Amino acid sequence: MKRAIEEDLILREIDESIQDYIKFLKLMIKTDSCNPPGEEGKIASIIKNYLDEQGIKCNIFPFNQSRANLLAYLSDNFDGKILLLNGHMDTVPFSSEDKWKYHPLSGKVEDNKYIYGRGTADMKAGLAAMVITLKILKKYRKKFNGNIILNAVADEEQGGDLGTKWCVDNVLKNIKCDFAIIGEYSGFNPFPKSVIIGEKGRTHVKITTHGISCHASTPFLGKNAAYMMTDIIQNIDKIIKYIPDIDPPLTESKLKEFISQSYSNPEEFNKILRDNPHLNNLFTSVTQFSKALTILNCGIKENIIPDKCEAVIDFRLLPGQDSKMIVNGLERLITDLGYLIAKNSTKKGISECVDVKVISDNKASFIHKWRSSTNLSSFFKIVELIYKKKPFPFITPATTDAEFLRTNGFCPETIIFGPGSFENIHAANEHIEIQDFINCIKVYSLFAFKLLSSL
Ligand SMILES: [Zn+2]
């Protein structure tokens, strides 16, 4: 790939500033922004101070005392292409510090190779790389046919309604983006880096069985809601027959084919699969619909037949499936088991029926035209140039803020790419490789430069 002189200068500047970048990232890691409660306002201030020093415009949108979202713009030009860089400032909490090698807020550098701490991979390194990208590209902004918007958000770890969703519905409402990068980890060690072009949806459904309570010595006088629920749970696998059969956007064989292309010798890839059998679970989780019973509540006293039992099921949906299909399928399954669905009950009051309700719903999304996207093909080439290995397209089993950008028409070409690997996310000893962090700064900077320099 032919490179402009400026691109070589950008790469050299990054290599010469590594210690400064580590210092900035450490400051972010040392600043606690566990959610709950959040306190993303402290991270927003760190970013604002850094960008203020560079003369880059930055607005903080505070809420709930210590929380905030942030927008920064490389320039005042909103006429050309717009690249959105999105990263969340909150992290999940850390329990049991004794399981960590170093304190989770230490930002400890180990062997000059790794940085440890809560939020390194999810996703302070990705966010720091995005802030640094703005600093690097500032000197070229007058040449650019477009703009970069940095959106540092709150609340991702609790669903994103107060963060990315709020920004898209309010401060970003009148902006149309051409391409968006979310800087979440996109490493799946020991494979090379992936570029994430889709994600599964997540629907939480609460099932409530309503029976009739009575004294436990005469159970035949009542209707045990716990037994109704266990009957439903034992048959829950049958739901697959009641929902439309959908092919995954990337099948297991296609995914393996894409990943194997990163290796010069196919045997090398096959050996990795043989040596790491757990990776097969990763393929299963991104190519299949899944469900898991996560909450079960029932009974108020040892000698009372329970008249109510509640269960929550976590469904993970493939792109093309939605919560309506799940509720519809569940209601048909429960009806076929012989129970009345509450909304169909004509009786007054609630008894001997089952209620099915969606309590949270994150939609699955996928860039269906990824093969024909020139922006994506440019992105893949830059990742290959920097990481020296061909990246592969992937879909993530977890939900991210991509849903808010990809599914409502705001920015269909939203990808996830960032430092870190899946195996230590939300776990003790979360860490990133420093080279991965530096490489991400290079990828973001070169891609933004290319995108905004082209007509
Ligand atoms: Zn994250």
What class would the helix/strand composition place it in? alpha/beta
Say which CATH homologous superfamily of the largest domain is assigned. Answer: Zn peptidases
- Our estimate of the beta-strand percent is 15-25%
Average predicted local confidence, pLDDT: 94
How many helices? The count is 13
User: What quaternary form is this?
Assistant: single chain
The low-confidence parts are none
CATH-derived topology of the largest domain: Aminopeptidase
Largest sheet: 6 strands, mixed
From the spread of the alpha carbons, the general shape counts as elongated
Number of strands: 16
Which molecules are bound besides the chains? zinc ion
The strands making up the biggest β-sheet line up spatially as 1-2-6-3-7-15
Q: How large, in whole angstroms, is the Cα Rg?
A: 25 Å
Number of domains: 2
The helix-strand sequence is: HHHEEEEEHEHEEEHHHHEEHEEHEHEEH
Structural description of this entry:
- This protein has 2 domains: 5-199 and 365-453, Zn peptidases (Aminopeptidase, 3-Layer(aba) Sandwich), CATH 3.40.630.10; 201-246 and 289-362, Alpha-Beta Plaits (2-Layer Sandwich), CATH 3.30.70.
- The protein is 34% helix and 21% strand.
- The protein is built from 13 helices and 16 strands.
- The strands form 4 sheets. The chain has a 6-stranded mixed β-sheet with strand order 1-2-6-3-7-15.
- The radius of gyration is 25 Å and the shape is elongated.
- The chain starts with a helix and ends with a helix.
- The mean pLDDT is 94.
